[in-house]
Specification:
Two copies of one chain form a homodimer. Chain A is of the alpha/beta class. Chain A contains ten helices and eight strands. Chain A has two domains: 98 residues, Rossmann fold (3-Layer(aba) Sandwich), CATH 3.40.50; 147 residues, Rossmann fold (3-Layer(aba) Sandwich), CATH 3.40.50. Chain A is 44% helix and 15% strand. In chain A, helix 5 runs antiparallel to helix 6 and helix 6 packs across helix 10. The two termini of chain A are 34 Å apart. Chains A and B meet through helix 1, strand 2, helix 4, helix 5 and helix 6 of A and helix 1, strand 2, helix 4, helix 5 and helix 6 of B. Chains A, B: It catalyses: [pyruvate, water dikinase] + ADP = [pyruvate, water dikinase]-phosphate + AMP + H(+); [pyruvate, water dikinase]-phosphate + phosphate + H(+) = [pyruvate, water dikinase] + diphosphate.
Chain lengths: 269, 269
Amino acid sequence: MRPAFYISDGTAITSEVFGHALLSLFPMEFEHHTISFVETVAKAEEAKAKINAISKRSGEKPLVFHTFVNPEIRAIIDSCDAIIYNFLEHFVSPLEKELNVQAKPKAHRTHSIHENSYDYRIDAVNYALANDDGSNVTNYADADIILVGVSRSGKTPTSLYLALQYGIKAANYPFTDDDMDELKLPNFLKQHKKKIFGLTIDPERLMDIRDNRRANSKYSSARQCRMELREVEKLYKKEKIPFINSTKFSVEEITAKILAETGLRRHKY
Amino acid sequence: MRPAFYISDGTAITSEVFGHALLSLFPMEFEHHTISFVETVAKAEEAKAKINAISKRSGEKPLVFHTFVNPEIRAIIDSCDAIIYNFLEHFVSPLEKELNVQAKPKAHRTHSIHENSYDYRIDAVNYALANDDGSNVTNYADADIILVGVSRSGKTPTSLYLALQYGIKAANYPFTDDDMDELKLPNFLKQHKKKIFGLTIDPERLMDIRDNRRANSKYSSARQCRMELREVEKLYKKEKIPFINSTKFSVEEITAKILAETGLRRHKY
């Protein structure tokens, strides 16, 4: 497998996203290596030694994706026995011309605490945990969004992703078997109807997920899953609650769709 | 403020990371817009209308960061009244030459459920929640990592980030006031010592965070915070537990440092 390195003076998340987006276009497997926090010349020399050793071992030049702005460190990385892709360099000078402003590269500004979104995000994580799975229905005035749906339709991971990535306070409330006889919005939800967003899922997928938790139970039976989903989707339509089917989507995709539909404001970009 | 658009046929996370990394080099504020899931010509025309309307309103051409591979959609976006930055195009043909393989662009492969990491990540989120804050000390055999530290030193957000982003199962265990008289590793942790990773934090920052939760309490007092941190750091050193100080770091940075130090394998890149 061709080795690929993602390197930066910070988390290397940007280099990873950059390299991964490109490599995913190729029908091949790669051997991934991340080297983060290369903040000094000494660490750059260490990274170079590692890259060169792997180059020698594999017999193929590694692909190196980096975002260094410090010229001294850049020169060391650029001198590795590797193919170097620096995605900043192609865009900085056109942007400088367009903006008529000179770039002021600082070390790893993105994904760092200096983005000022830290407290929002930690508060939002605490909020999501305290208001997970209907555990506290009296706090919904503070929610930015309230996710609803049957058990195991994706509410909790989505709430946590909204909190961690964007500082959005997401509560979530499950509709359970007990609610199903005559499913309607409870008063504590009705009061905050504008914040409600529904999730649904295909019955087959729900059965699989539930069966992994409680095999051969009523909870995971085809009949029960179908009934719960039918009732919940009927409610969404009756109450005009926006909803999406999470079956074929990752947590990033569900979140992106929710943000697009609701226009919720993020506390972090 | 100059408008900036991040557009793609998927979540637009790659376009956001790409644009944000570039724009953060400039000492200016931008007005951010994301348009995700532009999967059809009709949606591309809608996006174009939106971009052109904002161009007209602001009197300045918006900056548009995109990653489209579909030529029809690309042509529509490229024809907007805007400055277009397409970060794929600069790198795809050099990579094709280097790899001697032709790129096979598929629509939004990254950040989608097709990355095959979905189940790992959801399992890891469930694991993190079930093993948060010492709530279950009998499950540590299944942990990839066990974060330890005093209350409010960053354990929970870090556990969740490890789970959501990388599918890594992280338990976390708090050392509390009751443990402090003669702090040592409990047996259920000693058994899994290789998995333990410590967090610490500056006393002033800890006091702030705790004071927001319980103002003027013993819990948030300078004396208590200093004592707990002193004891915990002494334990880390005595037991040779790797640890980092989370004070000046975002959850991404803490996670990246932990991954670098432990060499933990990710289930998602």
